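Troubleshooting log. The previous structure file for this entry was overwritten by mistake, so regenerating from the original sequence record. Sequence copied from the archived sheet and checked twice against the printout by T.R.
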Amino acid sequence: MSSTRENRESRRKRAVRITAIIITAAMLLMSASYILSLFAVRAEGLAGSGLVAYAAESEGAAPAAPEGQPGDPAYEQRLSDLRAQERIEKLGDLIYYLRMNYKDSLDLNDLANGAIEGIMSVLGDKYSRYFYAEDVSMEELFSDLENEYAGVGVTITESAGEVFIMDVNPSGPAYEAGIRAGGTITAIDGQSVKGKTITEVAAMLRGETGTLVQISVSSGGKTYAYSVTRRMVVSSTVRGEMLDGQIGYIAVNSMSGATATEFIQEKLILLNQNMQGLILDLRDNTGGYMETAINIADQLMDSGVITVYFKKGEPFAVVEATPNDMRKVPVVVLVNENTASSAEMLTGALHDTLKAPLVGETTFGKGIAQSTIPLYNDDILRLSTFYFKTPNHGEIHGNGIRPDYVVHAAGNYTRSQAEALKASVYKLSRSEEAKPGDISVNVLAAQQRLQIMGYDVVAHAKLDDATAAALRDIQKLEGLAETGELDKMTIRALSSRFEDMLSAPSGTDPQLEKAIEVMKEILAK
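Regenerated output below.
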């Protein structure tokens, strides 16, 4: 008897899970208004006994057989679709049956929310998300892509599970409070930010003008607390200047709504100063609007393909540059591991079509675009709707774009700090390899270096999952096979990146120096 009850309970749990997925599939396949109207109709006239009777009568009803022969793939697919359609048509009854007959009280909102979260998790796509109206508005969701907002004036990014301060607006309240770029945000108003997304952290930093926010920042091994009063901040996404030898420099830190206009203005200023070549800095540009990146590509290209859109394995659109009268100059592009999304699309266009050399580190590898859809009930669906590739059909997603000249960034350490850090770690042998699960002093030495480089690993000498993930990131940046093993090539790459981070004097920029060198060679031809 006990076994029978356990089997029945197991089947019930499995049915509930399947129901959650089916319910949400219906919400995506049918309009939200239809679903809710269906719920409303059932709610008004529902009687417990009637619902039970209807469910019993419907149980086991088979859909009409489709055309074709059993065993034929097309027939089986049509049959599966018919069965799914039948389940969708009875979802309203099923939801209310659960609510009326389940042993505990159930809330319709809980059932609907659980179904939504279930189907979004089934997608297996961290970029597709469902936002509830009570949690975030369209204005808040897009505020990080606009130039004006109420907040503290910092630009943040996420790496290895931590939230880093990439830039601090010199005219913003965070700068006045003493916050500078390079630190790690650990808590906001006493709440840890560990495990939160960039969108969630940005929302915590923003708020009404005049309100106070407490920000905890870790830097140089110490944690500092800052009290910052929010106010309206106007941020520029583009910065330009003329370097030696008629070489122009434009840094673009995001692809916001105003970025293309700002870029054109900066380029015109530099052209009027007799710019002969341009270094475009896309480092730490995590993307934004696709149209903005396309507009910037248009300003730098006379003709040719900018990007190719793919869906379900097939190309469905080719975006090409449109001719314009603005004078064109040769371009060198600076990128790093935080160059992502639409910034990678721009990078691919300039590299493949314009033949612009790339300098820096392998880009992030986000080659999918999202559409943000406001729903009638003020909820918001952000859904990955297509892939984009380079003009030569190079796969960006999961791979990134490897530079022609790989140059590691400099660290922000004094000479004495760098020497102290070098002395604090075990020697990393170039010949002692390790695989996931292995335990050795060499693994410990690697973990110590990874920790200093900002990776979320524990230095306990075992090559665990977190360590393997960090090593795969190093391998990706260096263009190596992403095995997660500590092999000879990975040891060499890790040692090189660690030394580069510590050896360069604070304030130097070896990546920019290399870009200038490459541009001078181009102009000398």
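Residues 1-62 have pLDDT under 50 and may be disordered. Archived copy saved in two places this time.
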